[in-house]
Amino acid sequence: MDFHSPHLPGATFAGPAFNSLLRRLSELTGELEPPAAAWPARQFSLLADTGVLGWVIPRAYGGSEIDGRELMLGYRELSVACLVTAFVLTQRNGACQRIAGCGNEELKAELLPPLCTGELFATVGVSHLTTSRQHLSKPSVAVRETAAGFVLDGTVPWVTGATFADYVVTGGTCSDGRQVLVALPAASEGVTQLEPPRLLALNASQTGSIRLEHVHVPRRLSIAGPVEDVMKRGSGGGAGSLTTSSLAVGAAAAALARMQDEAERRPQLAETIEPLLAEHRTLEGDVLTAATVPFPPLLRGGQGGCDATPDARLTIESIRHRANSLVLRATQAYLAASKGAGFAAGHPAERAVREALFFLVWSCPQPVLSAALREFACGWGT
Ligand SMILES: Cc1cc2nc3c(=O)[nH]c(=O)nc-3n(C[C@H](O)[C@H](O)[C@H](O)COP(=O)(O)OP(=O)(O)OC[C@H]3O[C@@H](n4cnc5c(N)ncnc54)[C@H](O)[C@@H]3O)c2cc1C
Predict the structure, then answer these.
(1) pLDDT digits over 295-309, tens only?
(2) Which of 126, 158, 247, 357 to mutate to test the pocket of ligand 1 (most atoms within 8 A of CB)?
(3) By Cβ atoms counted within 10 A, which residue in 72, 134, 255, 270 is the most buried?
(4) d(CA 305, CA 282)
């Protein structure tokens, strides 16, 4: 059974080295599950060896700067091979993209070359500026501006790979409501990485909170701000970006490929697989099309279901909602087809179902969450 996207041969990074990377990641993926749930250090050195760490780094700093469409293809392929590695890469790439897209030339020259080779690891802790703790009246991280830079106090609730990071791209809110984004050295005085909680899935991502107590960040480490809605400026993708959908598309592809293997011995499964595969093909095409639009529109209010107009179907938020819906249904169909055997810990179906649930909570802006809740309440597309 072929796991690969039909679009892959057109990608600049496609070839024997990338194929053997995918094979290796898929062989090693078991070690990222409990009890080991090891941090994907080995996986990251493979990504470095294959040039994947340069994908979002500008050529001037040693990277390959692939375009948005190729990046989505790459994420999709990596998530088929190993969702945890692909996810950690997206958080690291999010940090690199924020740095690469900022106007601080000194910071870019200092950090981007070692990030590109993998000598440095950076991650993001930005959810408190987008999708986490938005209902609280007090900002999660308070910022005071000084002559030398900024002082940060509070909690960054979610940071993937916090204990392995050299830098965390994070920020906070000033008393006048404006926000800043900085490249925070993880070893700064006043930074404490808290023990990552045990998660339903993706434990190897070592995601936890960090506490900031009077952390002084010099202005030379500033990425943006003080400015309103700092996460809506610059590049790096906001909450619920196409990146998240690409990973969901990859996770769905992996489940469907495994289910197709099962169907070779059980032809009655075809009536379930065929419509899911057709939906997957359309969605994958839509992700790649949307990735070629410089500023795809956000959908406000509508759902962008399968009967929506093409324009509504191609909004970032409707794609995300469709991707979430598909990965949940595809993985659960795979579990149902695997029957009790698939419910045993260690079977790929139980892992796929747990990992798919992550998309319900990862970087989900309110319209995507509302669409998911409507679907749970009424059925898809109503
Ligand atoms: C495995 C994993 C890895 C992640 N990695 C990263 C990362 O590397 N970087 C990053 O920036 N983010 C990361 N995130 C964060 C993610 O993108 C979301 O921001 C996060 O899942 C939002 O959940 P929350 O519990 O913080 O939301 P919150 O909205 O803060 O909800 C927390 C709780 O508050 C209550 N609540 C929510 N809304 C309301 C309301 N309106 N009124 C009253 N009570 C309310 C509910 O009880 C809820 O359970 C990660 C998340 C996970 C699960």
Answers:
(1) 554 433 333 444 445
(2) 158
(3) 255
(4) 12
- Which atom of ligand 1 is least distant from the CA of 239? 17
Residue 328 lies in a domain: yes
- When divided into structural domains, the chain yields a total of 3
Q: Are residues 246 and 374 in the same domain?
A: yes
Q: What is the CA radius of gyration of the chain?
A: 20
How far is C-alpha 194 from the chain's CA centre? 22
Q: Are residues 264 and 199 in the same domain?
A: no
DSSP string, 124-190: EE-GGGTTSSTT-SS-SEEEEE-SSEEEEEEEEEEETTGGG-SEEEEEEE-TTS-EEEEEEETTSTT
Residue of 369, 377, 362, 376 whose CA lies nearest to 248: 362
**In terms of pLDDT, which residue wins out, 240 or 186?**
186
Write the CB contacts of 59 (distance below 8 Å, at least 6 apart in sequence): 65
368: CATH: 1.20.140.10
Range of the domain at 264: 242-378
Residue 102 maps to a domain: yes
CATH assignment at residue 98: 1.10.540.10
Q: Are 240 and 177 in contact (CB under 8 A)?
A: no
Distance CA 121, CA 128 (A): 21
Do 101 and 223 reside in the same domain of the chain? no
d(CA 238, CA 91): 12
Reference 233, options 126, 351, 363, 89; nearest CA is 126
Inside any domain, residue 1? no
The answer to whether the CB of 93 is under 6 A from ligand 1 is no
380: left (phi over 0), alpha (psi -120 to 50) or beta: beta
**pLDDT tens string 311-330:** 667 889 999 999 999 999 99
Per-residue pLDDT at 326: 98
Q: What is the CATH number of the domain that holds 224?
A: 2.40.110.10
Q: How far is the CA of 289 from the centre of ligand 1 (A)?
A: 29
Residue 7's pLDDT is 82
